[in-house]
Amino acid sequence: MAVAEDPVEGGAVPVLVAGAGPAGSTTALLLARLGVPCTVVERRGDIHPLPRAVHLDDEAVRVLQRIGLADAFARISRPATGLRLVDARLRPFAEFRRDRAAGSHGHPESNLFDQPDLDRVLRAELVRHPLVNLRVGTEVTGLDQPPDATAPVRVELSAPGGAETVCAQAVVGCDGAGSAVRAAIGSRLHDLGFTDRWFVVDVRSARPIPTWGGVEQVCGARRAATFLPLPGDRYRWEFRMRADETAEELARPARMAELIGPWRVPPTQLEVLRAAEYTFRARLADRWRVGRVLLLGDAAHLTPPFIGQGLGAGLRDAHNLAWKLAAVLAGGVPGVAPEEVLDSYQSERGAHAEAVIRGAVRVGRAMTGGAGVTAALRRPLTGMLLRLPGVRARAERGIVPRFPAGPLVDRVRHRHDLPGSVCPQPTVRADGVATPLDEVLGDGYALLTAGPVDAGLAARARTLGARTVRLGHDLADDGTLLAWLAAGGASAALVRPDRVVQATSPRT
Description:
Blueprint: E1 12-18, H1 22-33, E2 38-42, E3 55-57, H2 58-66, H3 70-76, E4 77-79, E5 82-86, E6 92-97, E7 110-113, H4 115-128, E8 132-136, E9 139-144, E10 153-159, E11 162-173, H5 180-184, E12 189-205, E13 215-219, E14 224-229, E15 234-240, H6 247-250, H7 253-259, E16 270-285, E17 289-290, E18 293-295, E19 301-302, H8 310-329, H9 338-368, H10 373-385, H11 389-396, E20 427-430, E21 433-436, H12 437-441, E22 446-449, H13 455-463, E23 467-470, H14 480-487, E24 490-495, E25 501-506
Helix pairs in contact: 1-4, 1-8, 2-8, 8-9
């Protein structure tokens, strides 16, 4: 695959992104959309051929929308009906439905896909974009960061032509769980108390396997398992491994037939694409930034897959960081010191990533943990609790980001206040054309108004170059935005480029 010419000459690049997986590719494309040239280095010569991530929620797809790839993602994914908890005989006892055509972020709430398909879409966009230089077969081997945080970072690379050094104004480490960038800045992954071995089987099936359209979580006492119907003819099973088991043993035809037996699928109709052990871990890096070197995605955090937020967390990192880094490289955010802008990345995303990881651990332990009497009693009890409307509604809301007060988020006045939360994205009508809200708001700050705007917020919006959008005048929607502002006690909201609310005007 051909790559673009390096947009910056002389061995210097504005931003070097280490890793061309979904998180790194999305980061580079978000930066390029904001006019920042990027060089992306990827040690593999081609995309990873095996399935890995399989789920994105509507907020993560909204991030793909910002780089123009929502339609492309829709073509390679399928909306899922949600999560169903079943016993060892596949009898359901609790269900979380996610079958709305569009959630609060304007896309299906749960989406199943095959990661190599997404990698191909992102790789093609990297190659196409004139501000992105993709260098395959190349990886970071070391960093030399001067004491002056604004000075260029010297990056040592191993490339097909041999070792070389480039200088970058900033480095973003998206190079996975074994991140060389993380090691270079002395950051360490802290164990959040969960490590579990699972046997992952990805297959193609010559005939459709009957499903309810969503994920099945088997909460059996003898062996926990997960079944996911992917797009087309692809499916995935995940089985918890016992301490004395190996992947080689479980991959034998007789054992494989035993594992998939409850689904009544003849093994002869399956083509096994991958059958391997995978260790689910809960880890969080202690430092996400040193100077102008930052960590993102699996380099910064690892989560068990039980709530489907692994890759989505990386895309949220990218959305949070890209506009801040672009602003700092362009001179900063008015009224906020550049170091404060970059520090806000970990203070905002780190707390949310930890909440997601701990939530995934709790869910994993409740639904799949152990094989003793206590675990056997806990699973049906959990199912009964989930039938209660209040408990069920709280569980179905998932873990929604609410960033703490800081230089880019005002302190809340009451618990329903909007700062730190994410603005919804309904379909709106602007100039008579139906379009997602983000396409109207643009790439910078926006001020959404449904009434008077206090003088202080109006002045901040002008300083930040915010686009003013008057509900009912500049656009019309189905009432979602008016109801959202009213629920937050606001007549206007100042929305950041990543769609997080920075400040509001109270209703009078």
